[in-house]
């Protein structure tokens, strides 16, 4: 690559050959993640085929990690670096998702580790043509990658499907999710008041068809001091405001799904 970033005018259209091959896109939102990105990319790339791609939307690399990202992109044509919108994690993920061409889109954080059989197990589940979205379980590890808790992500989140259940407590965790590309037109653009992309995608899938919570730990979810997301709840006032925003956003999503189904 002669340039740090690919052209920001990449077409938002389905690559027919990729659809035929059931190819994979990995949407990775990046923000100063140089500490762990090498281990994460290595765990992903070894599971991908030649027709697959990793879209890295870079909001910031002021930690000095741009050289590392550029080196990976120059050495592997499956990696595409694009300049992020600089509007937070939700819009950064949306930016990456909109440029994905594969039939199955995996979401990826910058600091976790994929289990060696993650792609294989997820694609096996998507052999069911009715499945729109999948969430798998994960082990919680520390900054060194060692298992730090005796419970899993599903245990922590009390994970499972259901609009009402996930309205009360979201169990759609992005780094554990994959979904069909057909959902992209329903989820994009993500409303500004929607607090997290993964919840939004999960709700769109629930309204549109079949979802699956796969009780297999296919990821090592790394907890460390620089995590962008947090496993704790906010204040009561924040939670009330968040719920009000969710209700408004879900009404919008219902309209989108209904309009799409009429086309």
- Please tell me how large the radius of gyration is: 17 Å
Query: Which geometry do the CA atoms define?
Result: globular
Major beta-sheet overview:
9 strands, mixed
> Which secondary-structure class do the elements indicate?
alpha/beta
Query: What is the count of distinct domains?
Result: 1
This entry's quaternary arrangement is single chain
Would you write up a description of this structure?
This protein has a single domain (16-262), classed as Spore Coat Polysaccharide Biosynthesis Protein SpsA, Chain A (Alpha-Beta Complex). Helices cover 36% and strands 24% of the residues. It is built from 10 helices and 9 strands. Strands 1, 2, 3, 4, 5, 6, 7, 8 and 9 form a 9-stranded mixed sheet that branches.
Q: What is the gist of this entry?
A:
This protein has 263 residues and is α/β, with parallel strands linked by helices.
List keywords for this structure.
263 residues; alpha/beta; Spore Coat Polysaccharide Biosynthesis Protein SpsA, Chain A; 9-stranded mixed sheet; 10 helices; 36% helix
């Amino acid at each position: 690559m002669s340039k740090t970033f690919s052209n920001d005018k990449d077409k938002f259209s389905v690559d027919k050959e990729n659809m035929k091959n059931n190819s994979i896109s990995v949407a990775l939102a990046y923000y100063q993640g140089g500490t762990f990105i090498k281990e994460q990319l290595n765990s992903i790339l070894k599971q991908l085929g030649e027709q697959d791609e990793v879209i890295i939307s870079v909001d910031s690399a002021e930690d000095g990690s741009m050289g590392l990202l550029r080196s990976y992109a120059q050495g592997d044509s499956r990696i595409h670096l694009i300049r992020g919108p600089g509007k937070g994690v939700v819009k950064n993920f949306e930016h990456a998702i909109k440029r994905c061409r594969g039939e199955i889109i995996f979401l990826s954080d910058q600091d976790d580790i994929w289990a060696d059989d993650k792609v294989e197990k997820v694609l096996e589940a998507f052999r069911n043509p009715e499945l729109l979205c999948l969430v798998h379980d994960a082990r919680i590890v520390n900054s060194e990658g060692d298992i730090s808790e005796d419970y899993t992500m599903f245990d922590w989140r009390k994970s499972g499907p259901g609009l009402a259940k996930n309205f009360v407590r979201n169990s759609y965790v992005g780094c554990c999710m994959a979904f069909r590309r057909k959902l992209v037109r329903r989820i994009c653009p993500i409303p500004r008041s929607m607090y997290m992309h993964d919840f939004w995608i999960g709700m769109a899938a629930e309204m549109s068809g079949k979802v699956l919570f796969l009780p297999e730990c296919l990821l090592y979810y790394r907890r460390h001091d620089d995590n962008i997301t947090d496993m704790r709840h906010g204040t009561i006032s924040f939670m009330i405001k968040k719920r009000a925003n969710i209700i408004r956003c879900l009404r919008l999503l219902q309209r989108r799904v209904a309009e799409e189904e009429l086309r």
